[in-house]
Amino acid sequence: MSVNSITLVGRAGRDPEVRYFESGTMVANLTLAVNRRSREEEPDWFNLEIWGRTAQIAADYVKKGSLLGIVGSLKLDHWKDRNSGEERSKPVIRVDRLELLGSRRDNGAAMAAEEPAPAGTGEEEAPF
After folding, report:
1. Residue 128 has pLDDT above 60, yes or no
2. 61 vs 56: CA distance, rounded Å
3. Which residue, 34, 38, 37, is CA-closest to 68?
4. What is the distance between the alpha carbons of residues 13 and 105, in angstroms, rounded to a whole number?
5. Alpha carbon of 94 to those of 16, 55, 84, 91: distances in Å?
């Protein structure tokens, strides 16, 4: 029996980078910073790869600093360096499940900061 399962909780290091393919499939890539138990230690950084409907959710709701929980599996991406011709690789977490752990209040504050309400709509707010 083999097991390749990773569970992490951390904060998004950047907004997701989203790519669309001709087939209609999409992928979102971002980094996740996971703190160590001691505040003096630097966080561990993980590269995340998210596909399909979950990628769309990440694109719509995840922003830099968002608190996320993920379940996925480890894979190694391999490629040949264009300049040196050397074989390269990097570990990537392929996300199977994404949990948005930040509060709605946090998400609402972030959205309000990004999309200001139009000024002077002419309607007064109800006093209650």
Report:
1. no
2. 9
3. 34
4. 20
5. 14, 11, 28, 10
Q: Coil, strand or helix: which one is 98? A: strand
Look at residues 3, 14, 6, 26 and name the one whose alpha carbon lies nearest to residue 69. 6
What lies within 8 Å, CB to CB, of 38 at 6+ separation is none
Pairwise CA distance, residues 79 & 47, whole Å: 16
Q: What are phi and psi of 92, to 5 degrees?
A: -135, 140
pLDDT, one tens digit per residue, over 2-11 is 899 999 999 9
The label of the residue with tokens 């971002």 reads 30
Give residue 116's Cα distance to chain centre. Answer: 24
Query: How many Å is the Cα radius of gyration of the chain?
Result: 19
**Token digits of residue 67:** 């608190």
